[in-house]
Design goal:
With about 375 residues, this protein is α/β, with parallel strands linked by helices. Helices cover about 25% and strands about 25% of the residues. Bound molecules: pyridoxal-5'-phosphate.
């Protein structure tokens, strides 16, 4: 193989159990497997989670939910982003549960659907900002059954801001109004990975929606954060084959734009990965990979299909060897977070950015 990822099923399972253990038996854990399970492969990840007892999974759109049903997944599936009317057929046929984002959409929803209603408590993206009384009235008037009340937190890893507390307060205000009106949804949920990992139990209510944490990451905090309460480990290793090893003289220019000039006679290993595989172009001349258990720096630009790395200190490297772009080997390790920080992006975009041509394998 030229470029592949290895996903550890055991790590996915252990990360899920770590969340279950932290939030306790009163809180339902609904892992988020949108965007091909953050690049890990939604079907296989969902099979592992289902075998671990996950009764709910969350995806972004109807197509993702249908793909899981076609892969044999039987858990409840919540479709979190908007469901346009022309996709409602898919919802019914495949037993998917929609999130409803506005009171108008609620009135249009046929009775057959239990639904979760999303509140905009401060993210200003999706969900209703209507007053509690208007929400109660719309829920009462709708034919379908309110099964869950939810919102999404904007800054759960930021302890320099009070935005999370304000969002929880706004959510509770609507929750109280809904309950006082005798409408009794089964689930109340706000928290993604950061609100779980940084222990904000006020956001857990009785359901949580971890995405990133299932794959082994929690974003770095801002401000005066408590210690992480959740222990998870990366489930994905990303590898590329060494295609060629070559020696270049001092002064040789390497790659597009001649971004790197050899400081002395150097040995270069050419790897079968590039930005068309999702490797961040921003790591040109500044990233690292692991070669034979040691970090080796990227030399020159990230090309579409190739990376050039410094193998001067690794004379044993030969074509056919595997280099790690993300993973650990010997004493060296590189996480998606390491790549993200160096590239000035986030770990989510590194993981979701691994493109379809990179073969997914499971161990
Ligand atoms: C993606 C998403 C999540 C999961 O977020 P993580 O930070 O990956 O845990 C939870 N809820 C909603 C609405 C989302 O879109």
């Amino acid at each position: 193989m030229r470029c592949w990822v290895e996903v550890s099923r055991a790590r996915i399972a252990a990360n899920f159990r770590a969340v279950v253990d932290l939030v306790g038996p009163e809180v339902e854990v609904m892992p988020v497997v949108k965007a091909e399970g953050y690049g890990h492969g939604a079907a296989e990840v969902s099979r592992v989670l289902e075998a671990q007892g996950a009764r709910w999974l969350a995806v972004s759109n109807v197509e993702e939910g249908v793909a899981l049903r076609q892969a044999g997944i039987r858990s409840r599936i919540l479709v979190m982003a908007d469901v346009p009317p022309y996709e409602r057929v898919g919802l019914a046929e495949f037993g998917l549960t929609p999130v409803i984002h506005s009171l108008e959409d609620l009135r249009a929803l046929p009775p057959a659907f239990p639904y979760h209603l999303k509140l905009d408590t401060g993210l200003s993206r999706m969900g209703t900002r209507a007053a509690p009384e208007a929400i109660v009235e719309a829920v009462r008037g709708a034919p379908a059954r309110l099964e869950g009340l939810m919102t999404h937190i904007a800054s759960a890893s930021d302890f320099s801001s009070r935005q999370t507390e304000a969002q929880i307060a706004r959510f509770l205000e609507v929750r109280r109004a809904v309950e006082a009106a005798g409408l009794a949804p089964t689930y109340f949920h706000l928290a993604g990975s950061a609100a779980i990992g940084y222990y904000r139990p006020g956001a857990w209510q009785n359901m949580v929606r971890p995405g990133l944490a299932i794959y082994g990451y929690v974003s770095p905090p801002r401000g005066d954060a408590p210690r992480l309460a959740l222990e998870v480990k990366p489930a994905l290793a990303w590898k590329a084959a060494v295609l060629a090893v070559r020696d270049v003289p001092a002064g040789a220019l390497v790659g597009y734009g001649g971004l790197f000039r050899a400081e002395r006679p150097m040995r270069i290993a050419v790897l079968a990965a590039g930005y068309a595989d999702g490797y961040p172009h921003q790591l040109s001349n500044r990233g690292h990979v692991i070669l034979h258990g040691r970090l080796a720096r990227l030399l020159g630009a990230v090309s579409m299909d190739l990376l050039t790395v410094d193998a001067t200190e690794a004379p044993e490297v030969k074509p056919g060897d595997a280099a790690s772009l993300v993973g650990s080997d010997g004493d060296a390790s590189l996480t998606a977070e390491d790549l993200a920080q160096r590239a000035g992006v986030i770990s989510y975009s590194v993981l979701c950015g691994i493109t379809a041509r990179v073969r997914r394998t499971y161990v």
